[in-house]
User: Fold 5HT6R protein from Piaya cayana.
Amino acid sequence: LQVPCGLSEPVAGSESRRFTNKHSRKALKASLTLGILLGMFFVAWLPFFITNVMQAVCGCVSAGFFDVLTWLGYCNSTMNPIIYPLFMRDFKRAMGKYLPCCRRTREPRPSAISLSMRNSNSGPHAATSLKNVL
Assistant:
């Protein structure tokens, strides 16, 4: 005897596929962000560390060149607050919450009282009078 397949199996398969695709996109985006951050770190600081070792071994590095490489590393540190908000939505929200210069000008979210009054067919005057009472 064969048991016919129910409709729930393809639906469950599509649900798991959608769930997997969503998480794989998040993992890909996280990997991309991490790759960019680490790549920039190595590009900025690796010459400094190599030059630092060379300076200790042979003393053949000029002070001006060493300063330039040090400032290249410092520039990497200033780029991190720019890179994080570009690639991470949660970091962007946190910056907007705590830094006044990064806030978006938007309408404030309505309170629960005003939403319930709006949905109860009481009209705008009831919401205004309720605000005066509170």
